[in-house]
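Final report, results section. Input specification for complex C-07:
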Amino acid sequence: MSETKLIHTHDLVKTYPVAGCEFVALKNVNIDIGKGEFSGLVGPSGSGKTTLLNVIGSLDIPTSGSVTVLDHNIGSLTHKQAAMLRNQHIGFIFQTYNLLPVYTVFENIEFPLLLLGKSADDRKKMVNDALEWVGLSAKADMRPAQLSGGESQRVAIARAMVKKPALVLADEPTANLDAKNSHHILETMEKLNAELQTTFLFATHDEKVMQYMKRIISLEDGKVVKDETK
Amino acid sequence: MIKFLLLGILRDRSRSLFPILTVFIGAALTVVMTGYIGGILPDMIRLSSHMDAGHVKLMSQSFYENRHQMPLDLAMDNAADLIETLEAQFPDMMWKARTRFGGLLDIPDENGETRAQTTISALAADLISPNSTELDYLNLTESIVAGGLPKDPFDILIAKSMAESYDISVGDQVTLMTSTVNGSMSFQNFNVSGMVVFGIAALDKGGAIITDIEGARMALDMDGGSTEILGFFKDDEYTSERALVVTDWVNNNLKDVNDPYSPIALRLEDSNEMAGMLQFAGSFIFIISTVFILIMFIVLWNSGLMNGLRRYGEMGLRLAVGEQKGHIYRSMLIESAIIGVIGTIFGTALGLVGVWFLQEYGINLGDMASNTGDGIYYPNVIRGKIIPACFYAGFIPGLIAPLLGSLVSGRGIYKRQTASLFKELET
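Structure output:
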């Protein structure tokens, strides 16, 4: 584990009301993730991977316990503060890419920078850099519908990385990709992890993804059952 | 950000086309209706005042109380004196004595025997004095389609439709049978000097005859009298406020509650049923805007909800990358405003074309107009008019309705938990 803690959870519990009962999605989760880690949350469906990712990403709040991300206590953030944390420091990569179909590749990647209030010149330079990282400079003016699945996910990576966030949360990023594209995507992220020291946290049950992880945190029924570093 | 939103609107037709079309149609209809009212109202005021009510109308109190029976015995008998007083008091006005009466018109054959009879509604005005302006006010010169203007007190003009129905020709002699102010029978021969088509169904389709007031006075035995005195502002610009000054003065200074023959003065809108219409016209833009805002709001609210569901993924993504809910909500309102502006600009352009068409060609509503009465006149061919309000009227519903639609439909997204949106993003 790296020396600087980026994420710290302490006795994290998350419950949801389901049909009048409380469903416990996370049970006393205690993990620390340091700067520059390339880690994976693994486990079967319903084990709490995505819930944990949501809480760490400040999209949800803990029911009890605490989660600290970049020295921000997630449970005490206002909506506005949580949005600012995501905007400035966290990138998201989704299973279904979630590119905005009416915008070009360039504009999709540019969007988070618009929210950050970057100037047009800065945006242009940063988007071009991001396109270069993922090898899609030639497709900047294309629409998502004109891209393959692998290319779309690379655009999603560029969008997550363009603002150079401290943390990237990737939820099943290769689930819709074939083996070749999956490896390509993971190599790209591995390269960015090494070059930019960005922390990556994956939620996955894909064996291919696990091969790339430096650390694997296994979840079962909302509990951490194994935490091993390669 | 605005540029980003604009690009989205322009490229995503399913997001923009239907709302823009809705606004476009609503704005166009608002502009057309505004131009239509803007055109018909001045015509209606002008014709109704010139033909019937004046800007101010004076009658004797007792005649006013029984006006629907047109009781000649209750008419004013001192018209000239009264006019002199009024002209001195209101130099910016001109005053005209007119008399309305009913009767029977007897149309003889070549032997002088009755060939046909018909009821008539007669209007007597000063048609032959050298300086009379009644020919202009009644638009007689332009309305004559056969023959000529009366030159003698016993010349009359008759509606062309009546002339055709009873086979009356210019130069024919007809007999008017009516009662005098004293209640005795009156028979008076008149020469048909011309036929008129006013282009006003209420006059053209009735049994209207127009005669000189002196001839009528002789026939009705009402020397110097008239059933009404009409006052017109010399600039022909009517406003209720101007007229009120005059009616107030007359009713305070000339009206005598103890003298049933003393005059009572009424404004244009008070002497017929025009008051409600003028009130409606005054608030027309507000009314039509409200109607279209409501209709368009319901349509755009639903379209906004459908659009919101379709764009759930986009909303979730935008939340994930750190956009605040309030910012997303505001951006939806900005999108609506852009859609409103685009739709309204095009709608206003189309609406102006429609108003121009109404202005140039008009719509002939003569058949419908035949049933109007109570002193409200408007031309058979209704013409719109491009008035300043046409340029901005469409923007009222065009901007408010989409904003309201987004305001309501957007609340669903705004109130949804961030994590829920994010989860739905993944499904």
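The mean pLDDT of chain B is 85. Residues 55-270 of chain B form one domain. This concludes the modelling results for the funded period.
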